[in-house]
Structure formats: C-alpha cells, structure tokens
C-alpha cells in the first residue's frame, strides 16, 4: 500500500510538472510569434524608409572623370576640401572642450 501511494504521488507530480512546463512553452511560443510579427512589421517599415532615403538622395555621377571639365573638377575638389576643413575645425573645438573638462578632474 505504501509503494502504491508513493508511485501515485510521483506520477501526479510528474503530470503536474509536465502541464506547467507545457503551458509555459505554449505561452513562450505565442510571445515569440507576436515578436516575430512585430519584427516583420518593423523590417517592412525600415525597407520603406530606405527606399525613401535612396530616392531622396538621388543619383550622383561617380563615373570616370578622365575627360571631364577640369574647372568643374577643381570646383568640386574645393567644395570637398572646404567641407573637410570645416569638419576639422569643429572636431578640434570638441577635442579642446573635452581636454578642458578632463583637465578639471586632474587639477
């Protein structure tokens, strides 16, 4: 009689644990499905946004410039260099400000 009670309790506990584990797995599977659905929606929105940005960017001529007008090329080079110089000045100002902030900790 004792062994029958022990085995009955073990079987019922196993069935209860199996039920709880199955319920948790089912709920996790449903949550995963919801997240995958949301991820698909976000990916679609991202693809639409990328298309919009590519359309807004337009096309730039990046082909060979061997026979292009030199005055246009020099003007474009001057624009690029001016932009780079401006970014260099801004970068140096940020670095100087950072050095001043860090120097406050060391003095």
Could you please describe the fold and organization of this structure?
It is a single chain. The protein has 107 residues and is an all-alpha fold. It folds into two domains: 1-44; 70-107. Helices cover 87% and strands 0% of the residues. It has two helices and no strands. It has helices spanning 2-57, 70-106. The longest helix is centred in the first third of the chain and has 56 residues, at 2-57. The termini are far apart. The chain crosses the membrane at residues 6-26. Keywords: Membrane, Transmembrane, Transmembrane helix.
What is the number of independent domains?
A: 2
**If you compute it from the alpha carbons, what radius of gyration comes out, rounded to the nearest whole angstrom?**
33 Å
Mean pLDDT level: 91
The assigned structural class equals: mainly alpha
DSSP strand tally? 0
Which residues sit in consecutive blocks of at least 5 with pLDDT less than 50? Answer: none
First CA to last CA: what distance? 83 Å
Q: Overall 3D geometry?
A: elongated
Please work out how many helical segments DSSP would assign: 2
The percent of residues in helical segments reads: over 70%
Percent in strands: under 5%
- Sheet with the most strands, sense and barrel status: none
Can you write the helix and strand succession as a string? HH
């Amino acid at each position: 009689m004792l062994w029958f009670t022990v085995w009955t309790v073990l079987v019922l506990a196993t069935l209860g644990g199996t039920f709880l584990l199955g319920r948790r797995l089912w709920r996790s599977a449903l949550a995963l499905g919801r997240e995958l659905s949301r991820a698909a929606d976000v990916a679609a929105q991202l693809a639409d946004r990328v298309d919009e940005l590519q359309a807004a960017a337009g096309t730039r001529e990046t082909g060979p410039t061997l026979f292009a007008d030199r005055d246009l090329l020099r003007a474009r080079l001057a624009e690029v260099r001016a932009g780079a110089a401006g970014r260099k000045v801004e970068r140096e100002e940020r670095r100087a400000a950072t050095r001043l902030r860090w120097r406050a900790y060391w003095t």
